[in-house]
Structures are given as structure tokens and as C-alpha cells.
Amino acid sequence: MSIVTTGLLITTVLCIAANGFEVAAKLVKAQFVVQNSGEVGLAPRWLPYLAAIEGAGVVGLVIGLAGVRPLGLAAAIGLVAFFIGAVGAHIRSNVLHNIAFPSAFLALAAGAVGYFALPLA
Prior knowledge:
Elements lengths: L2 H25 L3 H9 L7 H19 L3 H24 L7 H18 L4
Helix pairs in contact: 1-3, 1-5, 3-4, 4-5
């Protein structure tokens, strides 16, 4: 396994962990999630739906790592789209003080796309 492949694999595992934490935080409506969503104009009633979408991405990444690489790639692409939307929501609402968080999640998802897009060696 090359250094690039190893780095992208680590990024994918970090993506799974970070998004898994975020899904749990959304499901329990953690204070920081409710506050952040309120700042960007998102009603708390939408959090379970966002958690379901993000959770599906996490499950897809895990299944991808288990050997179904096309599903992992699809899940990673879905998470990239999800976090482009999150970054866009921050920009639209001019909430820039914490834009680093959805940007970091976007970067992790992009790394997962890179991992699953690599040909198997």
C-alpha cells in the first residue's frame, strides 16, 4: 500500500469517526448542534433528517471499506454534496466564525472520495 493510499485510508476512517460523532450529536440534539443550526437558519426539527442522510453516508463508507467499493464511493460523493450544502448554508447566512467545521468535514469526505476512486492494487 502506497503512502497516498494509506493517507487516504486514514482520512476515510477519520471521516467515518467524525461523521458518526456528528450523527449522534444531531440525534440527541446536542446544544452545540442546535445552536449552530439555528445560526444558519435551520430549524431543529430538521436535525433527525440530516442525521439520517449523514448516517447513511457513514454506513456506506463502512460497507465500502468492507469490500463494496462502489457503494463507498457513492457514499463519499454523497457526503461531499452534503457538506458543500453545509458550507453554502454558512456562507449564505454569513456565519463564518465556525465555517472551519463543515469545511473540515468536506475535506474528509473528499479524501474518502479519493480513496474509493483509486484503483485496487
